[in-house]
Automatic annotation (TrEMBL):
InterPro entries: LytB/IspH. It comes from the Bacteria. It comes from Candidatus Campylobacter infans. Keywords: 4Fe-4S, Iron, Iron-sulfur, Isoprene biosynthesis, Metal-binding, Oxidoreductase. This is 4-hydroxy-3-methylbut-2-enyl diphosphate reductase.
């Protein structure tokens, strides 16, 4: 059986930057999960003594706090700034951009429509910077019973599919006189999705690697599953099952933006040993 890894997959710029920051800040604590990958977080804990806190309230005697890649809310940043602690901001630049857009557009009188997951830390972070009304939605259906203003600013979570975002643009153009659309979908996300699609069209089986709570990994899995019915979303090699690969000729592998190369290599090696 042949094994092929997608041309673009794994660590994106923002995640790679955040991990480098954490590795240089031994003994620091992150506010929330630094990235959406449990194995990499455990590695940082073991090798670099970087702890993960659920909230600012858990800070005790820490000297350094790291803001996660997805950012934190404006209110939490204010509370953190009042503490006697060194703050290292590892927020991805692709997240700080929509934060600024939300602040600027709402200040200019625009109502914000944010295409993303309500419970995702990135969505909460970006929405917190708006001073006007914010609607966090995943489909046009969620806007049907909402009376929108005539001035709308549309922002997307960085990991969403552009096709679904485009559908939201068309819908809002029919509802409001003025719609400002910002393309805040990360380039790495688009490249990973395109590479996964190309590979899934040819593969007999697709292995999608990444955290179960990773939005961009879920998108890669949905793309793979739509083109290759034998697609599986896993976090580590222990989840692999030998019977998946019986009579398969090409195994495609892709990975979410928070998946380090060492995990991808370990899983590829395990699959190779099956054949």
């Amino acid at each position: 059986m042949q094994i092929e890894i997608a041309k673009n997959c794994g660590f994106c710029f923002g995640v790679r930057r955040a991990v480098k920051i954490a590795q240089k800040a031994s003994g620091a604590s992150t506010i929330g999960e630094l990235i959406h990958n449990n194995l990499e977080i455990k590695r940082l804990q073991t090798e670099c003594n970087v702890k993960t806190l659920k909230s600012i309230d858990e800070l005790t005697n820490e000297k350094t706090a790291i803001i996660r890649t997805h950012g934190i809310t404006k209110n939490d940043l204010g509370k953190l700034s009042q503490k006697d602690i060194k703050i290292i901001d590892a927020t991805c630049p692709f997240v700080t951009k929509p934060q600024k857009i939300a602040a600027d557009m709402s200040a200019a009188g625009y109502e914000i429509v944010y295409f993303g997951d309500k419970e995702h830390p990135e969505a909460k972070s970006v929405a917190s910077y708006a001073t006007n009304r914010v609607h966090i939605v995943l489909s046009t259906d969620e806007l049907e019973n909402i009376k929108l203003s005539n001035k709308i600013a549309l922002i997307s979570q960085t990991t969403k599919k552009i096709e679904k975002y485009s559908a939201l643009v068309v819908y809002l153009m029919k509802r409001a006189k003025e719609v400002r659309v910002f393309n805040t979908i990360c380039n790495a996300t688009l490249e990973n999705q395109e590479a996964a699609e190309e590979l899934a069209r040819r593969a007999d089986i697709m292995i999608v690697i990444g955290g179960k709570n990773s939005s961009n990994t879920k998108q890669l899995f949905l793309i793979s599953k739509s083109l290759c019915k034998d697609s599986y979303h896993i976090e580590n090699a222990d989840e692999l099952q030998k019977q998946w690969f019986i009579n398969k000729k090409l195994c495609g592998i892709t990975a979410g933006a928070s998946t380090p190369e060492w995990i991808i290599e370990n899983i590829a090696k395990t699959i190779k040993n099956f054949s």
